[in-house]
Amino acid sequence: MTASPGALFALGLFAALWLIAGLWAVLRGIAMQRRSAFVAAQTERLAGLVEASPYLPVIVRADWRVEASERLGRWLGLDRGVRDFDELGGIGQGADAGGLDREELDALRQAIIGAQRGAKPFTLSLTPRGGSRTLVIHGAAAPVAVGGPGGVLLWLSDATAGEQALARTRRERDEAMAAFEALSGLIEAAPFPMWFRDPELRLALVNRAYVRAVEAPGAATVIDGGIELCEPVAGVSAAEAADRARAEGAAQLRTVPVTIEGERRMMRVVDVPLAPEGGRPIGIAGYAIDVQELESERGAHRRFAEAQRELLDRLSAAVAQFGPDQGLVFANLPFRRLFEVEADDVAEGQSLARLLDAWRERGRTPEVRNYPEWRQAHVDWFALPQASEEEWLLRDGTHLRVVAQPTPDGGLLLIAEDRTEQVQLAGARDTLLRVRTATFDNLFEAVAVFAPDGRLHLWNQRFRRLWGVDEAALAAHPRVDALMGGLADRLAKPNQISTVQEVIRAATLERTQRVGQIRFADGRHFDFASIPLPDGNALLIMLDVTDSRRMESALRERNEALEAADKVKTAFLSRMSYELRTPLTSIGGFGEMLRAGYAGQLAEQQQSYVDAIMESVAVLSRQIDNVLDLAQGEAGTLAIERAPVDVGALLDGALAEARGLADGEGIELVGQLGDGLGTVEGDAPRLGRLVGGLLDNAIRYTAPARRSGGRVLLHAEGTLQGIEIVVSDNGPGMPDAIAAVTRGQQAGTAAGGIGLALARQLVAAHGGTIEVMSEKGQGTLVRVSLPRRA
To answer: Which residues form the Histidine kinase domain (predicted)?
Structure first.
């Protein structure tokens, strides 16, 4: 079958088109393959870049699926990569897996939700469990082409090293700030002025001490006004001195006078340039220390040294002082005269070695066998740890006692004492001993000395004659038991000889002093005592007291008679007190009736008479009470009531009662009562009479002596333990009353009547004490101390 040309043409055209289409398809495939290879290579390159980047991209899709590389799992400490959001917390990764804890995971979830809803970017810092890695997450809504609708793109970075460096930097900063604050506080609290100047040498910082020193209201005023602490000295201001320190590059010290709070004081000022190592100075720091006391002490030390040397010049002992270089620094006049030292030797500071050579030539050193060795030994005095003492016998017969005392500064103090006269006096000591022995033998007392072993060592002739012992027997130095055993028959009671032996034994062995009494057969009485001596011996002294015993017996008999008379007197006073009280009560009663008008209305003159009668009755009643109390006190029957007594009210009442007498006599009566008087336990009426009697005595005995200017003071103070009442006056004084009260006796009427004696008894009955001090022509002071509870 033959085709037509048209068909063939159509067929050929179709084949050609098909071929062209195939060729185009092949070329298109080749181009797409090349494009795919390029994209794959580009993708691989980008993936490598992302993997090598310190940031890790993570896509969280709307369904909470996670697209990230395996590096995310490693950063979170997980066993494998993360494909779901909950796997970030280690869910499904094993019990020991890392990941974020629940709180951090919830925080990240909330941030992602915020980014999904509001396209709000966020930044979080998270720390996975089980590690020290710190991850910083920057999140924002992802492009739709990348994360799809609702996707969030997270960029994670490992900030562990940065956080550690930041923490270290913060810690260093905190430490530096703490150190700076501590230093600032130290500078601010420094007791001396401190300041800082900027590079332009202007004041930039001052402490409180600086502000106080310049008397400024505050630091800002000082800095703004440029108030300088130091005044210009020799034309150099404080800023110029600081500039000099900056130019020198080292601290500069100067001592200048400064006026502080109106007082001129010496200050040691130091300017210190501050600069980094090898850098330009950033400022000048300065401080000032008050050295006024130091300078004063130096001056005082210098004056003390001068005064000491003046004093040493007046001593009889020869004194020389050598410095640390062994040169002579000072020599007093006795030293220069004794060793023939010239003033030039002191001025030139001659060494001890050269002086020893010069002294040897003049015969002022002792003669020794090996002089060089002796000389070196004495030069070595400077190195001795303690003082050295020697005796020097010079050629002219002079005896010297030489003491060498090393001083703390390495010097030497040399003291020489001329003991020639002492040696000569020692020769006369034997003569004195013989004189003492003669005196010992002629003492009125019988004396014997026994050695520590009990043997008789020394005795005088009166001892030998008293006991009737031969000199030969005593010269054998018998023991005390052998000696006294043969003398028992000399005593009225032979067994008393053991008492004498015991007293001597106590003095020799026990080193205690004992006394005793013995009576001889002839009627003589002796007091004896044994006294331990410093050398271990015992001294026995026997004194004849026969005459004093006889006198004592007579005095005892007289004292018994006086005691009997005193008892009769006490009974009489007690009887008379009771007898006088009855008529006195009647007089007082009738006087009260007259005053009350029972006998009719009294005229003014009659009323004054009745008042005088009642006043006299009161005075006489008090005197009777005093006499009765005195009598009972001496008899030991004084009864004291115990009740709380308001001391302030009691003293106010006593002052009020004594005020009339004081005004009548022209005496100034002053009361000084403390606040803490409180109460005491005692008898209120008797305490009132006690204080009233003391005031009455003071007023009555001050008035005649001082027509004007008389003054009586009542002073009282209270403590937790008790109260103290003092009554003083500027009258004539009554020293006899002091002795009477001290002895517990009754003073005479010229010295206070029965007042002081009764006062002593009342105070003693209340458990207190009374003290009287008086000086003739100056006045009297009576101090009464009463306890709170008797």
So the answer is: 575-790
